[in-house]
Amino acid sequence: CDGVTTDPQTAVHTYTAGIYTSKVIVERSTATTVVARHAMTLVPLVYTLSNSGDVTAIKGGSGVANTITVTKTGGTAAAVELQFLDPLPAGVTSSFDPASCSPEPTENTCTSTLTLTAGSDAILGTYTIDVEGSPLSGTTSFTLGVAAPALSVSCSADKIKATKGVTGISAGENVTWSAAASGGDGTYAYD
Known about the structure:
It is built from no helices and 15 strands. By secondary structure, the protein is mostly beta strands. The strands form five sheets. The protein has a five-stranded mixed beta sheet, with no helix packed on it. A four-stranded antiparallel beta sheet has the order 3-5-9-7, with no helix packed on it.
């Protein structure tokens, strides 16, 4: 705001949490100097984290989403960066969209969509996922299940005769049956 002007001026500064004293000096060539002091305290953001609930990801499938909500409970609004408290299970990847958010002044909340994807190398099971915010103030937990894709079985024969509308095999002919299975979570045995 340095300079000479008759118009009102506004100075904008960004502060981190703390206690500050600001001083404004107004000098006029025809008047005495006026000094105004203003003290302000910026309290760090206090918030909680919540989530939309437990999720199940299919191994080798598309991702599943969980909405993480930041709710301001006190202090001065600031951006909260979301991260994991512990490493994710092997074979599971993630993304936060957005990676950080600032609680809206009118609603005191903001959200981020966490997408978790279980790759084909993920280990089946149930895992606790802990999400924390930075600056540290809140954490939230939910359960991620990693499940196998649905079991699918198909069978076919190498010879099928059709005689006068009747399907059948002649006596003494060999027929080879083939079966294929995919998905599921175990080994397959054919009887």
